[in-house]
Amino acid sequence: MTYKIGVIGDRDSVMPLKLFGFEVVYASSPKQVRDTIEAMAKNNFGVIFITEDASELAVETIDRYKSDVTPAIILIPSHNGSKGIGLKEIQDNVERAVGQNIL
């Protein structure tokens, strides 16, 4: 089975990722972000990149997919810079897998 890669966030942050063939969705309201995540999860998206800013609008929805294998939801910085949320998530996942923070 082949999976697609999606990107959710504000236009300035995610438009360049369209060049790599990712499906890009511009979302700025909590409802848009939640609906887009749900739609991508149902439509064979293996990885969903979401800007840290947009992720703050749909925390509950993202938390529901944390224990699922697909889609993997990866937080990325927006064009405004990183808030450290994505890095914290990676550190938490590594700590859970290894038993300690090796990063």
From TrEMBL:
One Pfam family from the record: ATP-synt_F
SUPFAM superfamilies linked to this entry: AtpF-like (SSF159468)
Keyword line: ATP synthesis, Hydrogen ion transport, Ion transport, Transport
Classification via InterPro entries: ATPase_V1-cplx_f_g_su, ATPase_V1-cplx_fsu_bac/arc, ATPase_V1_fsu_sf
Recorded GO MF terms: ATP binding; proton-transporting ATP synthase activity, rotational mechanism; proton-transporting ATPase activity, rotational mechanism
Origin: domain of life: Bacteria
GO terms classed as biological process: proton motive force-driven plasma membrane ATP synthesis
Coiled coil segments of this chain: none
Transmembrane intervals: none
Family per record: Belongs to the V-ATPase F subunit family.
Main function: Produces ATP from ADP in the presence of a proton gradient across the membrane.
Protein's name in the database: V-type ATP synthase subunit F
Species for this entry: Enterococcus plantarum
